[in-house]
Design goal:
alpha/beta, 2 domains, 362 residues, disordered N terminus, D-Maltodextrin-Binding Protein, domain 2, 10-stranded mixed sheet
């Protein structure tokens, strides 16, 4: 599966590096010894640079825990490396930022050491769906970053913003849409289920999945481009060549700020929210340090700084943040989001890909 978190991070480059200047809460001086350290896996490029420059040094100042950042490879290669190393009792990184599908696959091999909410004083700050749990209730991961895919339009072609994902099916929009090209990164089955079938629980059965595929197939006459190259669609959206589609809320907002005639709309059914988790390898011997770092990242000050400077949506409750309405709207929405059915992309991946090829991409 194409790792959407990794590609999202690559887009953060245009948001500029860093979260410098954030007010940082002091951490308990429990681990001040010089030999305390933590290896943390993050996605490379500007995202890693930002953490190296601004997050990790501040965490070290607050706790005395030295951080060694590790650039994660793309796709699920990192998951494979972590699993192989854990079997040998080794941890290439103690904590890693993992996509939701990778989290579920890691659960299947008990790769993630459970995180203890009792050791996380900021645990209650989290929005519930940013707590990734094993089937037995153990906490497998804690939300690290999140972002939205929304309904985007060229304002020259569409002076009025659409209000619903139903616009994708409107015959008036024939040959005008740009949509993501894979079942596992477009989340269009979830959009279809939420828009026409009452919610994503309509996808619980194979019968419901087929109904969603059949309804989604009705959008095909409106699609000009099924895109994998995000830059290609972004340019076509800006020019008006492909004036409507699904794209990343933060990037679209930045393009609008730069004067391009584009807008991002959260439909009444909600934007698609994707996210990644902090997860602790079972082979790590740094559980205490890892808990301190995860707790540190769940502070309102850190979450607000990430939203302002990196463009990620907060993983903690809105009322705890000092973001202005404008700052919050730039990265998130108070409309209930569409949460992808990550479980289906682990349990039924081959079948879904086959049906997508037969019914949508064919």
């Amino acid at each position: 599966m194409r790792d959407i978190l990794k590609t999202n991070v690559s887009r953060r480059a245009i948001l500029g590096a860093g979260v410098a200047g954030a007010s940082m809460l002091a951490m308990p001086a429990v681990l001040r010894a010089q030999d305390k350290s933590l290896k943390i896996g993050v996605y490379g490029g500007y995202f890693k640079d930002s953490f190296d420059k601004n997050i990790f040094p501040e965490f070290t100042k607050a706790t005395g825990i030295a951080v060694e950042s590790v650039a994660e490879p793309t796709g699920e290669a990192w998951l494979v490396q972590l699993e192989q190393a854990a079997r040998a009792g080794q941890a290439p990184a103690d904590l890693s930022m993992m996509s939701q599908v990778a989290m579920l696959k890691g659960q299947a091999t008990d790769l993630w050491a459970p995180l203890d909410p009792a050791k996380l004083s900021n645990y209650d700050n989290l929005i519930d769906h940013f707590v990734n749990k094993y089937p037995d209730g153990r906490v497998a991961g804690i939300g690290a970053v999140a972002w939205y895919i929304t309904l985007v339009t060229n304002t020259n072609v569409y002076p009025e913003a659409p209000t619903s994902w139903e616009a994708l099916w409107d015959p008036a929009n024939a040959d005008k849409l740009g949509l993501l090209a894979l079942v596992s990164n477009s989340f269009l089955l979830e959009v279809t289920a939420k828009t026409f079938f009452g919610g994503t629980n309509a996808l619980d059965t194979e019968e419901g999945q087929i109904k969603a595929f059949e309804k989604l197939a009705e959008v095909k006459p409106n699609v000009r481009l099924w895109y994998r190259d995000e830059a290609q669609f972004e340019q076509a959206l800006k020019s008006g060549e492909i004036p409507m589609g699904q794209y990343y809320h933060d990037v679209t907002g930045l393009a609008a700020m730069d004067g391009h005639p584009v807008r991002s709309t959260f439909p009444k059914e909600g934007g698609i929210m994707d996210s990644g988790c902090w997860a602790l390898s079972r082979a790590s011997t740094k559980s205490e340090e890892a808990h301190l770092f995860v707790n540190y990242m769940c502070q309102p000050e850190i979450q607000a700084a990430l939203s302002r400077k990196v463009g990620t949506a907060p993983t903690i409750k809105r009322e705890l943040l000092d973001l202005t309405a404008e700052e919050f709207a730039a990265v998130s929405s108070e409309i209930e989001p569409i949460i992808p059915r990550y479980d289906l992309y682990t349990s039924k991946s081959d079948w879904l890909n086959q049906k997508w090829t037969e019914m949508i991409a064919g």
